[in-house]
Amino acid sequence: MGSECSALIVFGVTGDLVRNEVFASLYELARVDRLDIAVIGVGRSDWTSETLRRTAETAIRAHAADDLVDAALRTVIERLSYVRGDYTSPDLYETLAKVVVDHELVLCYLAVPPTVFPAVVRGLADTEIRLRARLLIEKPFGSDLESARQLSALIDETFDEHQLFAVDHYLQKESLQNLLVLRFANRVLEPVWNNEHIDSVSIVMAEQFGIEGRAGFFDSNGNLRDVVQNHVLQVVAALAMEPPASALPEEVSGRRAMVLGDVQSLAFGDVVFGQYDGYLDVDGVQPGSTTDTFVRAELRINNDRWAGVAWHVAAGKGLAATKSEIVITFKVASAPMFNAQDCVPEPNRLCISMAPTELATLTLQARSSTAPLGTAKTALESADSYRPDERVDAYTRIFDDARRGDHTQFASRAEVEACWRVVNDVVHRAAPPVVYARGTWGPELSDKRDW
Ligand code: BG6
After folding, report:
1. What's the CA-to-centroid distance between 231 and ligand 1, angstroms?
2. pTM of the complete model
3. Residue 140 — left, alpha, or beta (φ > 0 → left; ψ -120 to 50 → alpha)?
4. What confidence score (pLDDT) does residue 448 get?
């Protein structure tokens, strides 16, 4: 932990990420009286502070709907100001240095495309802001393993590791924290949480919406870089890692990095890339673009706990529904008493819904009347029981934690690089993706609702 930042510079303030997530998070911080910070938005567009304030107000009103707290909205608006500039021009950073001259610690949030990160890092490094900056860097951190390493090396030239906060907002999600409690606070699970008892794991991150409004970012990244390399692999890490010896950030992150290091690198034969029909007509998408909006892959984890278990992961846009779900399928019970019967028990499944609801359901076999030892499925449900007003949205937590210098829920560089290593052999792809119809479950899965 460190001292608190008193200024936040948001690079890329005119972009959709800020409109969709950041304004609402600043408002949420203001609502709980924790936005004691000046917010300087930076962009290339010809905006003024007034334009920024109006955009923020619209976003906050849409987020808060009928529950708007006027005072919190005013707090955000009063703190906002805008600086226009070219990210490659030293003038921009000189101007910013003057704007934040009275602030001892400055949180610099890079909500720009990954290709622009190096320019901003260099620009900051050339001013004295570098001495009192925390760099909050959005994902994807680079566009492959090599560029991630180059970005790290560039940061290392000027900044200490403790100044870097690499964002993967899945790490800040309540639903990801739930997984750790489910796994490590239930003693009955640990003895069966391995290849002796688990047959396969499937992780699905399905999104019904497409990429309208954010083609500029998405078309040069695709779903593999946008969500699989980071969010999906972090869910894998939470499910597969060894129990941390303590809750210290370096311990938890070390365990995640360790298991990510055991994930076998993907080869083209393990992955299906898809693109939804109509993607090429979206405003801002390059003609003939082969960017993936869907990825399905089979992962293997080469360690004692997981050897032989298939990890099916799928993530896509323009699909039939928006839901994030994990299904852990156990091996079928092998009691000899069922051998002579006509009914083989079904495998137990632990289904963990991460969104839109948070719910864990364990299916068990119970006796049915179809045969003397007939079985039927029954279920045990566990919903998380903290109150809605105690929930903190991922981006609100990101700003609050980074502002206070708490690294706990940020990705370490070891994790980021381990994630890139997993996808690096398939990230540069020549073959076009398989086209799938919108509103289905992606290529080859159009009729299958149950992934
Ligand atoms: C973002 C991706 O990081 O995560 C988006 O850029 C994706 O493409 C989003 O839709 C999903 O996050 P959440 O919090 O809505 O599950």
Report:
1. 8
2. 0.93
3. beta
4. 47
449 pLDDT more than 60: no
- Ligand 1 atom with the smallest distance to the CA of 230 is 3
How many angstroms does the Cα of residue 169 sit away from the middle of ligand 1?
A: 8
Q: Atom 4 (ligand 1): residue with closest C-alpha? A: 227
Higher pLDDT, 450 or 191: 191
- Asked whether 227 lines ligand 1 (CB < 6 A), one says yes
Please tell me the distance between residue 335's alpha carbon and the centre of ligand 1 in angstroms: 44
**Spatial distance between the Cα atoms of 125 and 384, rounded to a whole number of angstroms:** 44
DSSP helix/strand/coil, 250: helix
Identify which of 108, 101, 35, 31 has the alpha carbon closest to the alpha carbon of residue 63.
31
Q: Say what the pLDDT of residue 2 is.
A: 63
Question: For residue 365, how far is its CA from the centre of ligand 1 (angstroms)?
Answer: 36
Residue 116, Cβ neighbours under 10 Å: how many? 16
**Cβ-Cβ contacts under 8 Å for 178 (sequence gap 6 or more):** 352, 354, 358, 360, 384
Q: What are residue 272's DSSP bridge partners? A: 296
For residue 51, which of 11, 80, 8, 17 has the smallest C-alpha distance? 80
pLDDT at position 427 is: 97
Question: Is 337:367 a contact under the CB 8 Å cutoff?
Answer: no
| Atom of ligand 1 at shortest range from CA of 139 | 3
Give the per-residue pLDDT at 68. 96
Residue ranges with strand state E in 55-211: 80-84, 106-110, 133-137, 164-166, 198-206
Return the H-helix or E-strand segment holding 313. strand 310-316
Which residue, judged by its Cα, is nearest atom 6 of ligand 1? 226
Confidence check: pLDDT of 451 > 60: no
Q: Which two tokens stand for residue 318?
A: 């323009």
pLDDT in tens, 378-424: 777 877 766 666 678 999 999 999 999 999 899 999 999 999 999 99
Residues serving a catalytic function are 231
Cα 90 from Cα 125, distance rounded (Å): 10
Position 30, amino acid: A
Residue whose Cα lies nearest atom 13 of ligand 1: it is 170
Report the greatest alpha carbon distance in the chain: 82
Which of 143, 119, 125, 155 is CA-nearest to residue 42?
119
Instruction: Determine the average pLDDT of the residues in 429-439.
Output: 95
Residue 249 pLDDT exceeds 90: no
